[in-house]
Design brief:
about 5% strand, mainly alpha, about 70% helix
């Protein structure tokens, strides 16, 4: 658990440090958003926050890969999650700057989900009548749908400073607890990709909030 706490702390610190730099880059590059009717912002808001989060995630992964326990989580699944996250970050950065059309964004989101599938990350079962094991093709389709739903749900609520990151932080804490307890109760390795990624996400959200409060 201590290594996961360290992971979250590193992620938060890096995000807190990188966000102001990315904010200046976004404003100078024209990647900012004017006030919209659904927003609660009172000033022009720079975009590209995902770039700061991606950079923080990359630095955190680079460091914690050398830790005794957490380092064992690095493998095919984590590689897929990192590559999919990188692709979504690039897609989001382009959208923030050039306002991509909906079809392009949906296609990109589906492609990101495809990257996860290629690296063995997909829904295998559902908690229905105990455990319902899914056929591989059904699990793949549900994975793509789930990824796209989550991405667009977070985008939809991102109209107030800190709202999206706050919701994501709560969800990440819950999922970290679930994956960690599941590993402990079933005798699995506590160094799992889900727990590691959620620890990083929690740190990113905390760092983002600290920067906004500064």
């Amino acid at each position: 658990m201590r290594e996961y706490l360290l992971t979250a702390a590193l992620s938060a610190v890096f995000c807190f440090m990188l966000t102001p730099l990315v904010r200046k880059l976004a404003m100078s590059s024209g990647a900012f958003i004017e006030l919209r009717s659904r927003d609660m912002h009172t000033e022009i808001t720079p975009r590209w926050g995902g770039l700061a989060m991606w950079g923080s995630m990359s630095l955190t992964f680079l460091i914690v890969s050398h830790l005794h326990l957490v380092g064992n989580a690095f493998g095919r699944e984590l590689t897929g999650i990192f590559l999919a996250g990188t692709f979504i970050m690039l897609l989001g950065a382009l959208d923030d700057r050039f306002d991509l059309d909906s079809l392009t964004k949906f296609a990109g989101q589906a492609l990101a989900a495809g990257i996860l599938l290629l690296h063995g990350v997909q829904i295998l079962w559902l908690p229905i009548n105990g455990i319902l094991t899914l056929p591989s093709n059904i699990g793949a389709v549900l994975t793509v749908i789930f990824v796209m739903l989550v991405i667009n749900a977070v985008n939809f609520v991102d109209g107030l400073d800190g709202l999206a990151s706050g919701i994501v932080a709560v969800c990440a804490i819950a999922f970290f607890a679930f994956s960690y307890v599941l590993a402990v109760n079933n005798g699995f390795s506590r160094a799992g990709a889900p727990s590691l990624v959620m620890a990083v996400v929690v740190g990113l959200c905390i760092g983002n909030h600290l920067d906004r409060a500064d």
